[in-house]
Amino acid sequence: MNQWDFLIVHYLGLDHIGHAHGAFNSFIKEKLIEMDEIIEYIYSKINSNDLILITGDHGMIDQGGHGGASKEEIYVPAIFISKEFKENIQDKNEYYQIDLTPTLSALLEISIPFNNLGILIENIIKSFNKLNIYQCLIDDNRRQLFNLLSNTKLSISLNNLQQIRQQAMNLANQQDSILLLLSILLFFISTIILWFNIPKISLLSLVVLILSYLILNNILLSIGISIIAFCLIVLIEGKRQMINYKKERNLSNQLLYYYPIFHIFSLFSSSFIEEEHQTWYYFFSTYLFLQTFENKSWKFFSLLILSRLIRSWNQTGNKWLNHPDIADFLNQSDHQIYLFIIHILSSIIFIYLLNKSKQSSLIYIFPLIALIYRWNLFSSFSSLTPLIYYSLLIYLFVRKQISLRNVIFTLLYLLCRTHNCVIIISHMIFYEYLSIKDASLAFLLSQSAYFHLGNSNSFVTIDISTGFIGIPIYLPIIHGLFIYLSTYGLSIVWLLKLSREQRTNSLIQLTLINCLFSLCVFLQRYHLFVWTVFAPKLFYLCAQTTLDLFLFL
């Protein structure tokens, strides 16, 4: 690339070496020399008015890790290089990383982002010959920060950028803390609702809400007080949902009893969240392994082999995401024949599992339509086949010739990526041959299914394209429903297999995890990875919990 206006280069070599061998090893010096040579080469190619910025998003402790709040992890240098600079200046002042946002905006002569909380680094602006517009840039930064302050009188009384920024940050942190605390209370009340039979006297909490608001004139605080009142009423007057904790004294059932404790503690670690699929795969494989020996059954051994196969189907998480997996192999252009054969074989198994009860011969049409659409067998007709698919599915469901769980399996068979037909078939097999009478086992399978499809706790793995399959016009509700089903459809299926009582137990487990994880996010709201790791996980948990409560309560 010879011509560019703005170039971002992200070298991961030092980070990888530090993680693997620690901050002090022979490879670090070699890599630093290599980086120096690259920077020197880039400098030789830039124009006189170009700028090079060298910085990092985090530091590293001596052992090679990061993610905490030590000085070695949160302090990084920022080096500005330009042929425009007349002298070398060493500024030993400390700045926030967010201060780079308005500074780079000023240097690039673009407007400062509305939600920016940073302030201009004055020495850089002055060194880059921006003196003629320096005061205008300061005023622009001050005006932008004013807009973030809800207290207008307070903002007008301040002239110093540092003071204005501090007020804006305090306001933002205060709002975030209130919302996080409110979310903890809401998840806690959800758990209470499920755990207890709600008495009519709990309606008094609405009276508490009204009186609190009239007295305090603060809606968030009033809601919090009313929720606490509601919880106290339910705890005193409610009848607890009875849950049978008496498990058989074999290892597989003991695993189901204790694994939720480990899972909850793992959510306090950013690395465990990034690689959460490994946790669920381990629990699921261990359960099948124990069942194999306890029952001396080839059935469980076969299911164990199948679970090992599909865990390698889609590489997810963060650490090994770049490693090739089976899906990558099948989706290569010169391997399409293998994908087509797998799709044909999966369709045969799909028909067998879907119509074991011989409810309707029309069910045989679904795999054929999916093949026509996915492989564009009739170019002028293929785009219309999903509409036929949906219409036929609705017709059979209304006529009660297909169950709700098979409706979801059938929808997923069309919505999910072609290579994931094996994942759908695998979970149909698990559903057919695993006896699910325990909420913990159903929850284990539902969470494993989420990651088997290639999902992760990062926003980048949400497959938006599934929401538009066969829908010729823009229908946001339908698109959102399809995206949700393609993400959580298999998780819903496992809840359907439970009795109403056990389903409630599973929802209690989910809302309790939400409550404790919200507390975790609140405690770690200043963590380096709060927005990249903890916040997306909280979003996924909220989405899953909200829809599950809506569907099954």
What does this structure look like?
The chain is mostly helical and 553 residues long. The chain has 24 helices and four strands. It has helices at 13-21, 26-45, 71-74, 100-108, 122-127, 134-146, 152-156, 161-195, 204-216, 219-237, 251-266, 270-274, 276-295, 298-311, 326-331, 336-354, 365-374, 385-398, 404-415, 421-433, 439-452, 476-496, 500-523, 530-552; strands spanning 52-54, 79-81, 196-197, 239-240. The strands form two sheets. A two-stranded antiparallel ribbon has the order 1-2. α13 (276-295) crosses α21 (439-452) and α16 runs antiparallel to α17 (365-374). The protein is globular and about 85 Å long.
Outline of this structure?
By secondary structure, the protein is mostly helical. It contains 24 helices and 4 strands. The longest helix has 35 residues, at 161-195.
